[in-house]
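# nightly structure sweep
# worker-07 picked up a monomer target from the shared queue
# config: single-sequence mode, recycle default, output format = structure tokens
# input follows
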Amino acid sequence: RVESAGGKQARMARSGSSYCSSSDLAVHFGLAKDAAVTLSVEWPSGVKQRFSGVKANQHLVVDESSGIAR
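# output follows
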């Protein structure tokens, strides 16, 4: 989930929804002119993470155990 001046958005990443398949785990958000967001991640384990002041226009890798890897 992201929250920015432009509003709130939510996306879900899913992988391997059927036999011998895989899915792209990238999640994209359209932020228009918003320069930064608050990013919230809820993992299947139930762990919740929140990151404030995340700059727009970048590719991030978020890991459940270590947070954002840049």
